[in-house]
Amino acid sequence: MDMPSTQAEFEPADMAQWTAMVGRILKGAAADSLDRTDEDGLVTHALYPVDATAAPAMRQLPAAPPARLAEGWQVLQTVPAGMSNADILDALSSGATGLCLTVHDPAVMEGQLASVILPAVAISLDGAAATPAHYRRIKALAGAEAAATQIDLGLDPVDGFAAGMALHADAPTSHCLFRSDGWHWHNRGVTAAQELGIVIAGCAAVLRAADAAGEDMAVAAQRISARIALPTDMFAGLILCRATRRLWDGLLAGCGIDPVPLPVSGHASLRMMSLLDREVNMLRMTTALLGGAIGGVDAMAGYGHDLLTGESAGARRMARLAQVMMMAESHIGASLDPAAGAPFVESRTAALAEEGWRCFQQIEQAGGLAVARADGLITGWADDAATAREARIRSGDSEILGATLQPRSEAVPALLPEFADIRRPAALIEDIRRAAAATAPRVLILCGDGAMQDGAVRSALAIAGLAAVTLPEGDPGIDAARPDWVIGCGVDTPPAGIPASRFLTAGDLLPAGDRLAVLARLTGSVEAGS
C-alpha cells in the first residue's frame, strides 16, 4: 500500500515533541505566551491537543452538498442601480452565477435583467429591492420556469413576516422568503459572536411568528436563509460559517423540528476596507472569500477594491475571478467542510457557537429580535464593539495595513455617501489625513544626544501623512524652520521661542496611549510660525 507523502518524509510526532519544539523556539517560555484573545474574549492557542479517542467531528455541510460538489458555490455579483444590462451580461459571462439585485424600481430591475436566463442564475434581492413587488416581477419574468429559478427574497424576519407569509402559499418550495442578516450589523460594528446571535435570533423570530400564526414551523424553516459577513481574517470567517450551521441545527432541535438545510450566503466585510492604499483591499477580499469558501457558504459576494469610491468594472471582475480560481484551480468547491476535525477549528467553532448562543439568549431575554432592535440593545452592542475596536487602533494594539502599518503618502479620495454609516476603523486615520492635507503643519523633530526614537516618531507621523525636518538639540536653524510643532526625542523641554502648547515628546506618539488623538492635535488648527 502506498504511503502518504507526509508519512514517507516525516517521522510521526506526538504532542510532547511539538511542545518541546515550541519551548525551544520560545527559549523556555510557555506555549500559552502565544495565546491570543479576540474581541469576544475567545482564546486562540498556539497548540491544540489531539484526542485520539474522541468521536469523529460532525461535519457542517452546505445546504445542498451534491450541488456544491458538482458546481461549487454561487458567485454573487451585487447589482447597484447604475449597473447596466451589458455590465450584468458581462459579469455572467466572466464568473458570476448569481445576481444580488438592489435597485428600488422594479421596472429598472426588469431592464437590468433583459436577456438573462433566470433559471440558470441565482437571484438574491437586497435592500430596496427586497420587496414583494420585486419578487412578483421576477416570477413573472421567469414565467413557466419560476419554480426552477432560485430566488432569495430577503425579507426582514420581523418587519417582513406578514408580507412573506402572504407570498408563502404561491411561492415554489425552492424560494427563500426571509433572510436573517448578520452582515448589516457586522458593518455597523458588532463582534462575530454578536453577529451570530443576531442571525439565530432572526431565524427564531420567523419560527415563533409562524407558530403564533398557526403555520407549520418546519415548513417556515424552509423559507429562511442567512447572510453572514466574511472578515479579512480567513479563519474567523471559516469558523463563523461553521458555527452558524451548528446553532441553526441546535435551534431546530430545540423547537422539535427535523433537520432542515439553511442556505448561508457570505458577503465580504465592508468595514474592513480602507480608502488608503486601496490595493490592499484586494488582499483583504481574497482572504475573506477564502474563509467563506473553506467554511462552506452556499453563495458568496465579493467587492472591488475601489468600492468605497465607485466600483469599477475591472475591480468587480477581479473579485469574481478570485472565486472562480478557488474553484477551478484550487478545487475548494470539490470538498465538504475540509477543515472538520482540526482541533483548532473544532475548538474555536464550539467556543464561538457557545458565545453566539449566549448573545442569542440575551436577545431572547430582552423580548426577541424586534424588541432588542427597538430598545437599542443591538445598536448598543455595535457602538460599544466599534468603539473598543477603534481604541485598539488608537493605542497601536491593532494595526491596519496601508493606514497605520506601512502607510503610503497619498491623498484620501472622497467616500461615497452610501458607505458613510459603516464603522470602518480605517476612517479614523482617513479623517486625520484629510485634516493634515488641509492644514499642512510644519513639524520639527528635535533630537538630543544619543536619542534613538527618530525613526519611530517618523513612522507615527506617516500615519497622518506628515513628514518632518530633524535637527539636533541647540541647532540655530530652529528659528529659521518656523515649526508649528516640535517633537523632542531625548529632549524633554521646548527650545527657546517654542511655546509649551506646541511641544511634544516622542513618548506622546509611541504606542502607549492614544496616538491618533495626538496626531489629530497636530493636524488641527495651526498657528503659523508660532
Structural features, described:
The chain has helices at residues 5-9, 15-25, 65-71, 85-92, 106-112, 132-142, 161-168, 183-188, 192-212, 217-221, 234-254, 280-295, 307-310, 313-328, 343-365, 369-374, 377-395, 426-439, 454-463, 477-481, 506-509, 515-522, and strands spanning 36-37, 43-44, 74-79, 98-101, 122-125, 151-155, 176-181, 224-230, 264-268, 299-301, 443-447, 468-472, 485-489, 503-505. The protein is α/β, with parallel strands linked by helices. Helix 9 (192-212) packs parallel to helix 11 and helix 11 runs parallel beside helix 12.
Task: Fill in the keyword field for this structure.
eight-stranded parallel beta barrel, 530 residues, 44% helix, disordered C terminus, globular, four-stranded parallel β-sheet, alpha/beta, 14 strands, TIM Barrel, 2 domains
